[in-house]
Amino acid sequence: MPIAKISPSLLSGDFGILAAECKRMVSHGADWLHMDVMDGHFVPNITIGAPVISCLTKHLNAFLDCHMMVSHPEKWVDDFAKAGASLYCFHIEATQDASALIDQIHAAGMKAGVAVKPKTPISTVMDLGHKMDMCLVMTVEPGFGGQRFMAECMPKVKELRAKYPDLDIEVDGGIAPENIDAAAKAGANVIVAGTSIFKADDISGTIESFRTIVNTEQDLLAKK
């Protein structure tokens, strides 16, 4: 079974000192760093792009988990690969040929992730499990931080984990100490959390608690 990977969402950090925020999260034990990239079309907001990623990678040695909330994800693959992105996660809703896009991402030297919105059936990605490196199940509507965790998305995680026991499955949106158990029991092993990590009194303790809960549940799932 895959191990826990805790990926603090930099959307909750201070963009004025983004490199320092990245280093701070890594120093507290973060496994990955989650970068939300929005183009103002797929979702209404606009955030960082490839030039910012490029600047960060000059000062960091970290796994950059780039969540591409963009309308034409195939357009930006090469730019993000050159910038140093580690994983390029596009939305299934934003492409007509997910399989070809995964091939394009792999050819560029990055891992490929596929994301699904809360209202998108998990059946849209079930045939991609043998190609994608990660599936992101959104637990809020993409585009805004600080939303309520949508527990009704957990059956998607369970279905995906049952079919692909070795796949990295990520959850993103509203993850906090009070609901991490639900995500872990469903089978998620990659945990994106913004406010609950950045605003925690004990950041290291919160990250380690999330990791322990996820790894415990993964062990239990492996024994079933």
Automatic annotation (TrEMBL):
Binds 1 divalent metal cation per subunit. A divalent metal cation binds at residues 34, 36, 67, 172. It catalyses: D-ribulose 5-phosphate = D-xylulose 5-phosphate. PROSITE patterns: RIBUL_P_3_EPIMER_1 (PS01085). One of its GO terms (molecular function) is metal ion binding. Keywords: Carbohydrate metabolism, Cobalt, Isomerase, Manganese, Metal-binding, Zinc. It comes from the Eukaryota. Its EC number is 5.1.3.1. Its cofactor is Mn(2+); Co(2+); Zn(2+); Fe(2+). Pathway: Carbohydrate degradation; pentose phosphate pathway; D-xylulose 5-phosphate from D-ribulose 5-phosphate (non-oxidative stage): step 1/1. GO terms for biological process: carbohydrate metabolic process; pentose-phosphate shunt. It holds the Pfam family Ribul_P_3_epim. Substrate binds at residues 9, 67, 143-146, 174, 194-195. Coiled coil: none annotated. The active site is at residues 36, 172. Belongs to the ribulose-phosphate 3-epimerase family. HAMAP family: RPE (MF_02227). PANTHER family: RIBULOSE-5-PHOSPHATE-3-EPIMERASE. This is Ribulose-phosphate 3-epimerase. It comes from Linnemannia elongata AG-77.
